[in-house]
Amino acid sequence: MKLLHHELARHIQDAIAAAQAAGDLTRFDIPDLEIRASKRAEQGDYNVAVMPLAKPAKMNPFEIAKQITLHFIKPDFLAVVEVAPPGYINFRLDEAWLRQQVETIIAEGDDLFALELGKGKRAQVEFVSANPTAPLHIGRSRGAVVGDTMARLLQAAGFDVEREYYFNNAGAQMRNLGNSLRLRYLEVLGQPLRLSDDEKKTFYQGEYLITFAEQLVEDVGEAWREHDWQPFKKYAEVKMFEMIRQTLARIDIHHDVFFNENSLYDSGAIWETLDALDKRGYVYKAALPENAEPEDMDDANAGKGEAVWFRSTQFGDAKDRVLVKSSGEPTYTLPDIAYHQNKLARGFDLCVNVLGADHYVQHQVVRFGVQSLGLDASKVHVILVQLVALMRGGEIIRMSSRAGNFETLDDLIDQTSPDAVRYLLLNRSTDTNMVFDLDLAVSQTNENPVYYIQYAHVRCAGIFREAAARGVTDDGADLSHLGEAEMRFLRRVFELGEVIELSVHHMEPHRIAFYALELANLFHPVFDSVRVLHSEVPPETAKARLRFFRAAQVVLKRALHLMGMSAPEVM
RNA sequence: GCGCCCAUAGCUCAGUGGAUAGAGCAUUGGUCUUCGGAACCAACGGUCGGGGGUUCGAAUCCCUCUGGGCGCACCA
After folding, report:
1. CA–CA gap between residue A350 and residue A84 (Å, rounded)
2. Which of strand B's nucleotides are less than 7 A from any protein C-beta?
3. A466 beta carbon < 7 A from strand B?
4. Do the bridges between strand A283-286 and strand A257-260 make them parallel or antiparallel, or are there none, so unpaired?
């Protein structure tokens, strides 16, 4: 299916060139012009503003528009090209051509508006990447939905896409998790839970660990009584990860690759990365950063011994960052740089990284690391997702994994539906802080736009059931029987291609959610007014309308699937 | 204090430097003998946080102020 705004842009460029060749326009470098869908019927279906050409052409914009129009070779999909003051060109689609697109839509089916933007390119989307220390909570889920939807849109744009989960299983949090399970295990064996002051700060209180401890007792009995945290960490990690994987599967999220942070230690990759950074002169060993201000000299870091630092200030960072602590243990930064080096070495043309807003600085540092290794940081694109605050009973709830105080994604799915969860978390720009109102999500599900969109698809499915029962088919439909209401819907269908393109271009998956709602918004009035199985509707008209609804169903299904939602036949 | 993000209708939010700023919810009033009413139609509702600037043109870009969120570790 054609992207009409691209076709139009090409024709306009040709017209300008032709006008210049004919001497009707002065010569100037032709800039990119913005073709947009018109908001009002009297402004055509698409329009372009040529005012930006006034200065380079040294002509008044209305005259420029007129000259372009005179040299414009009208393609088959256009009926009218006209100018409007002070310098617009309006384009109106040809209705016969538009009606015929019903067949194209049906023919393309599930691949409707499959673009070639990413043809031959490999993209990777890394998302979720939560430490397996607790069940997924709603805050994390936003990034999960955003990442998966982005992956679907990239696929629609023609990219070969891999979904990856970076599994932080190497750090102190995992040690704390292991130790927490160990204490729960001992508790199940009859030893009362008594926490040292240190443990009080690091203990994971969630009930899931009690469940794991009980299972562990069933598995190994008392055999682990004297073990340290390590086997407990391994056990908890496996269990927790399985839990997260199952939760994600409920909202149809499946990763292709699970990348273990541990593997970067096992293979020695992090030390190779450190070595490479060192060879390029970005690393030094010191007790304090070499550009430390005098007032830093007496802070808590002084006297800890020599750490290995990264000269991130050379890239504009506020301060140099520690890669290896004085204890000899790497910080999170070093394996993260090594991980990105690994990603880029795998030959992706695009690496999308979905992160919570609280990881901004950390990611900057990693980016500097990638740059200092001489790698192409422009291939790495971050979608920074602002945090989700949870509201219940009109009050904001603070979520904390360690305190076991959070709403899990599983609970939310239980109380609503996988489709509702996906839509609610997608239906906002990632730039905005989101207040997730639990009461609203749960209690007012009937007013939720997700059902409004899906109902449009249900109505299509319903009409075909009824038509089949009455022996009416859309075989050999004559589309000239379609009217203005159907045309309005078809015009909007063409914007799906643009939405996919813009979503990928700006890395903004929420666009598809708004488009789907607009589409449904346009569909329902049409469905109400355009009757098919009605005694007063002539058979040929009924056939054409049925054909139209088959195309509408294809579009609705496509939009729903791009959001990872189901397209139900009944509700 | 520094960095990133946000401020648009009563609420939740869209909006690519272009023509008269849009949805959903809420409120009010209508529509129904035919395919599923989780529907449709209409009304109401706006100093686009304030102030400067750039531009033929600014919700959009720049500066500044105010008010929120997040981050500024030898945590992950």
Report:
1. 42
2. 2-7, 12-20, 22-26, 34-41, 56-57, 68-76
3. yes
4. unpaired
Rounded Cα gap, residues A325 and A307, in angstroms? 5
Q: Which two tokens stand for residue A243?
A: 């839990």
Contact A543, A478 (CB under 8 A): yes
Tokens of A342: 């690994």
Is nucleic acid strand B under 7 Å from A88's C-beta? yes
| Strand B contacted by A37 CB (< 7 A) | yes
Specify whether the CB–CB gap between A42 and A99 falls below 8 A.
Answer: no
A429 touches strand B (CB under 7 A): yes
Identify the structural domains of chain A with CATH numbers, from first to last. 4-93 (3.30.1360.70), 95-168+256-571 (3.40.50.620), 172-250 (no CATH)
Give the closest nucleotide to A513 (alpha carbon vs C1'): B14
Which of the listed ranges A199-208, A471-480, A503-512 does the model predict with the highest average pLDDT? A503-512
Nearest residue: Cα versus C1' of B71 = A358
Q: Which nucleotide's C1' atom has the smallest distance to the CA of A466? A: B35
A142 forms bridges with which residues in the sheet? none
pLDDT at A206: 86
Kindly report the length of chain A. Answer: 571
Reported as a pLDDT band with limits 50, 70 and 90, residue A441 is: confident
Q: Please state, in angstroms and as integers, the Cα–Cα distance from residue A190 to each residue in A211, A226, A236, A483, following that order.
A: 15, 14, 20, 77
Q: Which residues have CB under 8 Å from A188's CB, separation 6+?
A: A210, A213, A214, A216, A217
The DSSP line for A424-486 is HHHSS-TTS-EEEEHHHHHHTGGG-HHHHHHHHHHHHHHHHHHHHHTT---TT--GGG--HHH
Coil, strand or helix: which one is A500?
A: helix
Q: How far apart are CA A440 and CA A438, in angstroms?
A: 5
Residue with tokens 């939405």: A499
Mean of the per-residue pLDDT values of chain A: 90
Structural contact between residues A115 and A3, judged by C-beta atoms closer than 8 angstroms: yes
CA A454 to chain centre: 20
The whole-angstrom separation of Cα A552 and Cα A105 is 8
Q: What is the tens place of the pLDDT at every residue in A92-149?
A: 999 999 999 999 999 999 999 999 999 999 999 999 988 888 889 888 899 999 999 9
Phi first, then psi: give them for residue A460, nearest 5 degrees: -60, -50
Place of tokens 């539906």: A417
Is the Cβ atom of A18 within 7 Å of strand B at any atom? Answer: no
Strand B contact at CB of residue A469, distance < 7 A: no
* Any strand B atom closer than 7 Å to A80 CB: no
